[in-house]
Design brief:
Layout lengths: L5 E4 L3 E6 L17 H8 L3 E3 L8 E8 L1 H12 L4 E9 L12 E4 L2 E3 L7 E3 L8 E10 L3 E8 L6 H8 L13 H5 L6 E9 L6 E5 L5
């Protein structure tokens, strides 16, 4: 079991940096019990899950310490007081139509694709409101674009499905990219690099950052 990368630790909450390829919570079966939450609970027995990242996504995850902190942090997520930003590299050249690289919005309702779980799909009839903001993040080539993403809602696979839906799937995405786009890189190029939230005890805004590993 590898060492946890701890970004912040206090009596109310933890902020951890999850590597790509590690489950956030246990899966089904004995081979899927090693995960970020289990590693955290081995060190802090009162650590409780508040939110998740996909196994193939790396970056910042907050955990509560104790039930009162978990309730407070969960409420902050529900009331959209928690702000997350991600770095992604997508297929193709994406041009920002906004002046000065302002934010663009993808507003497409999403639902689980039940016959093809765990995939999600865009569905005007069955989907729940789902909103992602994006802007360019520096480097572009003829074939790829680096983006900064901000999920306004938190649907399953939201960033991955939204980018596929506009024709620019994230490189390395085993569910939503083409085999050629998957083969270009050794992992999903999606990283949760920034997290801002109210502290569960005193309410002051806390900001955390994780250097993007790709």
């Amino acid at each position: 079991m590898s060492t946890l990368k701890v970004i912040h630790e206090d009596e109310q909450m933890l902020v951890l940096d999850k590597p790509a390829g590690l489950l956030a919570v246990p899966g089904r079966g004995p081979d899927k019990q090693d995960c970020l939450s289990a590693r955290a609970q081995a060190r802090w027995p009162d650590a409780l899950v508040v939110h998740r990242l996909d196994m193939s996504t790396s970056g910042l995850v907050v955990m509560a310490r104790g039930l009162p902190a978990q309730r407070t942090l969960s409420r902050a997520f529900e009331q959209r007081e928690v702000h997350k930003r991600y770095t992604a590299v997508v297929a193709g050249t994406l041009v920002n139509p906004q002046p000065d690289n302002g934010w663009n919005t993808i507003d497409l309702p999403l639902t689980i694709d039940w016959p093809n779980r765990p995939r999600s799909i865009v569905s005007a009839e069955l989907g729940k409101p789902s909103v992602t903001r994006w802007r360019l993040d520096g480097t572009q080539t003829e074939d790829t674009t680096r983006l900064e993403l901000e999920p306004v809602t938190g649907r399953t696979h939201q960033l991955r499905v939204h980018l596929q839906a506009i024709g620019h799937p994230i490189l390395g995405d085993a569910l939503y990219a083409t085999p050629e786009q998957q083969a270009l890189v050794p992992r999903l190029l999606l990283h949760a690099h920034a997290l801002q939230l109210p502290h569960p005890s005193h309410g002051a805004t806390m900001s955390f950052h994780s250097l993007c590993p790709f």
